[in-house]
Amino acid sequence: MQYSRIKNPNSTFKIDALQFRQYMGINLYMRLHKLGATRRFWSHQTRVDRVADIMARDTFETITRYLHFADETTSDQGRTSKFQLLVNHFNSAAQSYYMEEHLSIDEQILPYKGKNLHYGNITLKSQKKWGFKLFVLSDRLEVI
To answer: I want to staple 51 with a disulfide (CB 3.0 to 4.6 A). Which of 11, 41, 133, 140 is the partner?
Structure first.
């Protein structure tokens, strides 16, 4: 919400926990059921009730505009600064996870076709040509 005040000092943008869960669920649904442009989920010709009935289009777009996981007031503009807080959160959560005796480290591709992929490390023969190459810790049941 601080980002909305930086961009627009008169902004009254607020989001509660329910709206955030709905927003994240809609984003996940949209990634699984692609219609191209986001607005098509609300248009008359291609309306998707599972999305349009949960949240209004303008509310979704406002949350998309103002939701940021980075502190915009700091001067650190490193390549990972936009999502470093999220990475730190996952790292601390992983530290508290119970580890089994038999573990393995696997490679996994996180799909990404954004503009600033300066450090992607994917070979041309790979099926997925865009994204981040991650190393994940796995036990016999799941990725940790």
So the answer is: 41
